[in-house]
UniProtKB/TrEMBL annotation:
It comes from the Bacteria. This is Protein of uncharacterized function (DUF2721). It comes from Rikenella microfusus. The lineage of its organism: Bacteria, Pseudomonadati, Bacteroidota, Bacteroidia, Bacteroidales. The chain crosses the membrane at residues 6-25, 66-86, 92-111. InterPro entries: DUF2721. Keywords: Membrane, Transmembrane, Transmembrane helix.
Amino acid sequence: MEELTLTTPSILFSAISLLMLAYTNRFLAYAQVIRNLTAQHDQNPTPVTRKQIENLRKRLYLSRSMQVFGVGSLFLCVVCTLLVYIGMQAAAVWTFGVALLLLIVSLGISIQEMRISVRALEYHLDRAEKERN
């Protein structure tokens, strides 16, 4: 196995930071939609808005999980950089490996959340088509 250098874990810093920015923007968008939808549901409760709120709750928790695993990955990349710096190569290799696994989990959850989002949007498109016909 080759030795890790300081640049190896550092390469992920910018990628994970951009990913976290995207996750945060998605989270903020959910917050706004949830606020609007709950206000709408409070004024006129319907089964459709109830289902949308349930869907958004699931997506919100997935978004939180994506962020937690992403932050965990970034944290371990920083720890890995420190371990490389102080010369603890074996610990650095394992830490970097776990950081990569956390990033994979975060991305996998992101894919799951996108699938749910697409299904929710398809529902709206189907409803709009039915109303036009």
